[in-house]
Amino acid sequence: MTPEEFRRHAHRLVDWMADYMSEVERFPVRAQTRPGEVASALPPAAPEAGEPMETVFADFERIVMPGMTHWQHPRFFAYFPANSSPPSVLAEMLTATLGAQCMLWQTSPAATEMESRMLDWLRHAIGLPEGFSGVIQDSASSAILCALLTARERATDGAANERGLADAGAAPVVYTSDQAHSATEKGAKIAGYGRNHVRLVKTGDDFAMRADALDAAIRADKAAGLRPACIVASMGTTGVGAIDRLDEIGAVARAHDVFLHVDAAWAGSALICEEHRWMLRGIETVDSLVFNPHKWLLTNFDCSAHFVRDPDALVRTLSILPAYLQSREGNAVIDYRDWSVPLGRRFRALKLWFVLRSYGLAGLRDMIRRHIALAEWLEGKIAAHPDFELTAPRSLALLNFRYAPAGAGALDELNERLLHAINDDGRIYLTQGSVRGAYVIRVSIGQTGTERIHVEQAWEAIKAAAARLQSHPRV
Ligand SMILES: *Cc1c(COP(=O)(O)O)cnc(C)c1O
């Protein structure tokens, strides 16, 4: 493709993109596709001869689009948001065009220096104290893995990296709450702790990790000759958005000299608003924290902000220096490849720069506050309705409810049928959760374009689906 042909196709695609952004509401939120439908429309092997871009693009519209779930739809209330924005998309276009692999300072100084500066901007923006250095990871899962690895090396004094865990003495142990995201368990498997050395600490009525239970678990492991190594606290669990109290958890971490990581993947973005900074109480005891601008800060996936108090410990854990990666700048610059598991790195700081400058912190705060106010509105409606109940207190813009009309039994099954009815309808998209063993329906508000009207429509769709279940009790 020549640059002139590229220009022609690109203009057409940009028009398509702008149309999509303004018309995304026309689509059903969740793809209404059967398993295998898309695969069967794709030939089993690549074409021998090249095809015109017109044909490729026509197939994109015909085959791909019907198989997409529309995450940027203003009535997307499933999982957590992965909200994007036009400035972020523009930056991604430039990143793709430059196509730089930014593993070392030398392989694109602007990418490295922009990344350091943007993470400083974010650190200020969310009220983290001085003394944290930042790096962009591809996901919160990767940041949690890095924390588990750093903690493992700290607990074994570097022996796990050198001799392997089997030869590193007493087994290290990980602690997280029974509400925490599965990324910690997955990371513990990858980092060699083993699932048997992950303690899911009991939570209280507020779903937050109980510090006394954490302390007891650590003491029991020490008595058994094991090595408590890492605590992963949650700032906003996936199920109900529970916030662990960092001051209480941190006191236990300090008392036992255990590494403390905070998983703030979703809720961390709310820290840009002063009124949510209470979640940081105890931050002085924290060794690292991650939050995802790619969830709730208008920045395209992927972009996880990972802050560490001791970057040397992270770099000692991950660095390898073969001849072909040595550079003459040495320690005078940051080579981010030593800060994350993959060697190769995209230029992800550019989209943060575009987003932060385009909206300003005030614009981003307005968005967070709008979403939380919408969740509050819906919470009020659900609480006031005799046939629905909130199954956990609202946390920021996340709530959980279930349908529990008087006299109804088998509520788990009823709510599962209700959720399927809601999602098959296509106007909104919600996901399920489990609160203390009960099947519940989650509503997470956070899409870029979500306004009051969309949440009102969601509430109408929920009530209408429930009414249909009542008139056809079994289908
Ligand atoms: C989304 C989420 C994760 C996983 O984030 P990725 O960036 O997809 O790895 C981990 N923990 C919590 C609390 C989350 O909400």
Q: What's the arrangement of strands in the largest beta sheet?
A: 1-7-6-5-4-2-3
What structural category characterises the helix and strand content? alpha/beta
Q: What Rg, in angstroms, do the CA atoms define? A: 24 Å
How many E strands?
11
Beta-strand content bin: 5-15%
| Mean pLDDT rating | 95
Shape: globular
Could you tell me which ligands this complex binds, including any ions or cofactors?
pyridoxal-5'-phosphate
Tell me the distance between the termini.
Answer: 54 Å
Structure description:
The chain is globular, with a radius of gyration of 24 Å. The protein is α/β, with parallel strands linked by helices. Strands 1-7-6-5-4-2-3 form a seven-stranded mixed β-sheet, with helices on both faces. Helix 9 packs parallel to helix 10 (246-256) and helix 14 packs across helix 15 (452-471). The chain has 15 helices and eleven strands. Helix 10 (246-256) links the parallel strand 4 and strand 5. It has helices at residues 3-23, 37-41, 53-64, 86-98, 109-125, 140-156, 159-163, 183-190, 211-223, 246-256, 293-296, 311-318, 349-384, 411-425, 452-471, and strands at residues 133-137, 172-177, 198-201, 227-234, 259-263, 288-291, 304-308, 388-395, 398-403, 431-435, 438-444. Bound molecules: pyridoxal-5'-phosphate. Pyridoxal-5'-phosphate (PLP) is lined by residues 80, 139-141, 181, 183, 234, 236-238, 263, 265-266, 292, 304. The site of pyridoxal-5'-phosphate (PLP) has 15 residues, from helix 6.
